[in-house]
Amino acid sequence: MKLIKEDIDKIVRRIFAKQHPLLPEIMINWNKIVGFNFSTKALPLKITTYTYKKQKINTLFIQAEDNATAAELPYYQDIILERIKIYLGFEAIHQMNVTFYKGKNNSRGNGNDIIRAFRTIQQLRSRRI
Q1: What's the CATH fold of domain 4-125?
Q2: 22: CB partners within 8 A, 6+ apart
Q3: Which of the residues 14, 27, 74, 84 has the least number of beta carbons within 10 Å of its own beta carbon?
């Protein structure tokens, strides 16, 4: 029996690789990287790259759904970056930036669409079809 998770992973890779090639792998393994508690309260949004002293620095932007999670996640930054390094096999992410986003009821391109899509992907990946 084929898992729907495999098809969803292909779709996630195709869509989010356009933003940054490492983002889909982090999104797919997010549950394992940060654990169940944080994976339900925080999402990887994007990766930005800049050059500092001739070295590329990748920053992972994480969106937390409440202030408590946004305040707590930076304390786990070293652990999260180390786990990302383990899953990807090399030091791909050098920094983390956690932001809190309070969504509005009307979601017209304000970031809520990404959150809803990511939550749906997480739910579908956990089912067998």
Answers
A1: GMP Synthetase; Chain A, domain 3 (3.30.300)
A2: 47, 58, 88, 92, 93
A3: 14
The DSSP secondary-structure symbol of 80 reads H
Determine the number of helices (DSSP H) and then strands (DSSP E) in the chain.
6, 3
Per-residue pLDDT of the chain (129 residues; tens, 9 = 90+): 667 777 778 888 888 888 889 999 998 889 899 998 898 889 899 999 999 999 999 999 999 988 999 999 999 999 999 999 998 999 999 999 998 876 654 444 555 566 666 667 666 666 655
Residues pairing with 89 in the sheet: none
Backbone angles phi, psi at 71, to 5 degrees: -80, -30
Q: Check: CB of residue 87 under 8 Å from CB of residue 29.
A: yes
